[in-house]
């Protein structure tokens, strides 16, 4: 996926630097991995919000994170030519609510699970986010609906 990313994205400001270039072309082979890394880094840096690239999968993951109470809110922002999602991060007693967010199924090593093989993340304290034929959902909902799929990430 080749995207034109404007210098408004914090991670690319160093690439743009002092040049008059207003856009940078970047190839992303793992947009979900980039999305999770942006959230993880923003939480570690204690940012109130962060921007991630818009995609239907990213939007579905954010919907689940909001429903489960891991983030405050998110909204789609279409400024300039690149649609993005602005994520408002959540903290409790000045520490991030998301302790760990990691990719499980990777482009080089996909991880699929049957409904009966889906385990509880961190003994039920965290969640797995799974892409199923019925949509993106938590491990609890996948077991309840008896559907398996690709395990995208784990959140604790």
Automatic annotation (TrEMBL):
Family of this protein: Belongs to the universal ribosomal protein uS8 family.
Pfam families hit by this protein: Ribosomal_S8 (PF00410)
One annotated GO molecular function: structural constituent of ribosome
GO cellular-component term (any): ribosome
Biological process according to GO: translation
Its job: One of the primary rRNA binding proteins, it binds directly to 16S rRNA central domain where it helps coordinate assembly of the platform of the 30S subunit.
Keyword RNA-binding: yes
Domain of life: Bacteria
UniProt xrefs under NCBIfam families: PRK00136.1 (NF001109)
Quaternary structure note: Part of the 30S ribosomal subunit. Contacts proteins S5 and S12.
Coiled coil, from the record: none
Sorted UniProt keywords: Ribonucleoprotein, Ribosomal protein, RNA-binding, rRNA-binding
InterPro entries in the record: Ribosomal_uS8, Ribosomal_uS8_CS, Ribosomal_uS8_sf
Name of the protein described by the UniProt record: Small ribosomal subunit protein uS8
């Amino acid at each position: 996926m080749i995207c034109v990313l404007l210098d408004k994205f914090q991670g690319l400001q160093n690439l743009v630097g002092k040049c008059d270039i207003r856009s940078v072309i970047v190839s992303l082979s793992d947009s979900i991995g980039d999305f999770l890394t942006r959230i993880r880094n923003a939480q570690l840096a204690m940012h109130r919000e962060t921007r991630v690239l818009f995609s239907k999968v990213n939007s579905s993951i954010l919907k689940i994170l909001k429903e489960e109470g891991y983030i405050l809110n998110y909204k789609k922002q279409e400024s300039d030519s690149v649609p993005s999602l602005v994520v408002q991060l959540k903290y409790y007693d000045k520490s991030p609510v998301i302790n760990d967010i990691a990719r499980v199924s990777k482009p080089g090593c996909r991880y699929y699970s049957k409904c009966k093989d889906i385990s509880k993340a961190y003994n039920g304290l965290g969640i797995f986010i799974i892409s199923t034929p019925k949509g993106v959902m938590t491990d609890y909902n996948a077991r309840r609906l008896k559907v398996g799929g690709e395990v995208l990430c784990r959140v604790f």
